[in-house]
Amino acid sequence: MRDTKRRPRAFPALTVLLGLVVLVPWLICMGLLTAVFAHRQAETTLTWMGSRAYEAQTQTDLPWEDVSGWRTPGLQVTSALFDTQGNCLGGSWETFVSLEYLTQEEYEAGVESTGRYTRAVLNPDFLTDGAKFSMEQNLLEENSQPLRLEGILVDTIFTPRTISVWSTGAQTPTWVSLYDNPTAIHEDAQTVTLYATRFHTCFAPKNSPLTYRSTQYESLAQLVQTLSPDYRETWGSYPLWSGPNLLMLSVAPTQQGFLVYGAWSCPWLQAAQQLWWVYLLTLGLGVLVLVGVRRVLCHELLSPIQQLSQALATRQQWLLLRPSQVCRWEEGHRLQEQFQAHGAQWREQKDEIQRLNQALTYAKTAEEHRRTFTSHMAHELKTPLAVVSSYAQGLQEHIAEDKREKYLATICSEAERMNGMVLELLDLSRLEAGRVKLRRESFSLSQLTRSTLDKLSPALEAKGLRLSTCLESPAPVLADRGRMAQVVENLLTNAIKYTPAGGEIGVEVSAPHGHTTLVISNDCPPIPPGELEQLFEPFYRRPDAAPGEGTGLGLAIVRHIVQLHGGSCTAQTTPSGVQFTVTL
After folding, report:
1. Rounded Cα gap, residues 280 and 388, in angstroms
2. Which of 98, 218, 358, 465 is the most buried (most CB within 10 A)?
3. Which residue in 189, 260, 188, 259 sits closest to 223, CA to CA?
């Protein structure tokens, strides 16, 4: 029972397997490399957080100075100040100004420090665009220009109505408004005006939700407020992993209680962003290795199998391989050689069978051929023998002594013609009897045809014939070189003989679909289709052929040689003459 199960093809399967062999180690190596970089990234961030907490611990003059927050594409940072009981006093999720304030008299008197501190929480909606930008970029602190605040001061909490900064950028220095919230305090409330030369600003960054250990939080600020009280008695830095994400808390004591820095990041994503070029480079090298290994394996292992499979499917018994197709590995090369040896043995057996079949056919028709042969030989030899006999008798009786040399030349010519006829008869007899064994070898039919044309070029020039050629190279054949030279020469001689002076002969050699074809066409009077097969019969000559033109055996010998090779030889009419086609 035939197996109808569909099986994968070798080339796609090999590609997939090699892809897995390259891709899996690449993924493992890149995963380990990313893990190392992610670990370093986490250590770097943790060290930086610890240094910020240490700075906050040593800062004693300006409260809230180290409370700030920001966010980048791969990092969110927030901070909060707690009292000793763990109650949150505020954090970077608020927009505020922390300052050491001066009264108007102190400011005008040039007092530098008073030791009085306050914090003003601002509504971002009432900040000017320039103030928002300056606070986000910390430009107010860097410029060190004094602030003027108007509002209500209660203990250390200041509720501002307006805030201005001293600007010296214009031609005339003046106070420029940063904040104006008329609804912050009642119109009739008693306000004070404060000045500050030392201050710290914090602009609340945008919040984004996050998930920490399966719990959803609205923002990093909410997560820090939730976890920080548990660390009020333990100072230091703590990495807290949540899947690929990392929460880092740094806790440091302050005069008010303790300060907590919280940073949320994905070290794996940050490492991947740093290593993208390594990914591309190594993946590209892996693909090049895959393509190279696949090409070698396909050429050395799969190609011989495919060649043999194709040869068996088309009943081809010989592999015509270019030098680049010969395997360099022992197994593939041995497979090709064994198939070639098997093909050679098969061809020998086929040639032997062909020869025996021809011998059998010859034996069955021997009597008929004998009668035909006797008739043709009598007809073909009658004329030259009569010429030889008459001329020899004339020489014997000393008739026309002045023409003696002419008579002798004629006798020699007719004798040579009869000798050629006898040799061709012997050759045809051996072919028909199956007594010719082929010595096959691989050679170029185009090169053989070109050599024969060079040999016959004087005959072409003598009749003024035009020649058109199309010889495909190399057009390899596996045949008997001597016999194929006889085929080409007989066909070309026949074309030269029957082409009128000034006519054209066409020669074409091609190798389509695994076969090699020789096509020879020539100009001549039209031949009826019924006479085409008779052209290959022994002693056949067309009625309009000139007396003495050939023996009528050349085309018969051509067909027998081609058929002995397992090929075919046909003739067909063309608009200008006839065309002979030999296919091997």
Report:
1. 93
2. 98
3. 260
Would you say residue 334 lies in a domain? Answer: no
Domain endpoint, select from 268, 285, 308: 268
Does residue 302 belong to any structural domain of this protein? no
Q: How far apart are CA 133 and CA 143, in angstroms?
A: 14
Alpha-carbon span 458 to 464, nearest angstrom: 10
In angstroms and rounded to an integer, the radius of gyration of the C-alpha atoms of the chain is 54
What single DSSP character describes residue 200? E
Residue 550 pLDDT greater than 50, yes or no: yes
Residues 503 and 478 in one domain: yes
Residue 154: strand, helix, or coil: strand
What total of structural domains would you count in the chain? 3
What is the SS3 assignment for 106-149?
HHHHCCCCCCCEEEEEECHHHECHHHHHHHHCCHHHHHCCCEEE
Asked if 369 and 472 sit in the same domain, the reply is no
Q: Are residues 167 and 106 in the same domain?
A: yes
CA distances 412 to 288, 368, 398, 459, Å, are 77, 33, 18, 22
Angstrom distance (rounded) from CA 40 to CA 270: 11
Residues 459, 497: Cα–Cα separation, whole Å = 9
Single-letter code of the amino acid located at 37: F
Sequence-separated (6 or more) residues with CB below 8 Å from residue 233: none
Q: What is the pLDDT of residues 81-119, one digit of tens each?
A: 898 888 898 898 999 999 999 988 888 888 888 888 999
How many DSSP H helices and E strands does the chain contain? 13, 21
Alpha carbon 38 to chain centroid distance? 34
Between CA 245 and CA 340 the distance in angstroms is 65
Residue listed under structure tokens 């060079």: 454
Question: Tokens 């970077």 — which residue?
Answer: 92
Residue 25: C-alpha distances to residues 37, 144, 207 (Å): 18, 57, 40
Structure tokens at 199: 């201050």
Q: What is the mean pLDDT of residues 365-378?
A: 58
Residue-wise pLDDT tens digits, 273-292? 888 898 899 999 988 988 88
CB atoms within 10 A of CB 562: 22
Contact residues for 203 (Cβ-Cβ < 8 A; gap 6+): 95, 124, 132, 135, 136
CATH of residue 403 = 1.10.287.130
Residue 505, CB half-sphere, CA atoms under 13 Å: how many? Answer: 24
For residues 427 and 449, state if they share a domain: no
**CA-to-CA separations, 74 to 14, 80, 311, 348, in angstroms, rounded:** 41, 21, 62, 78
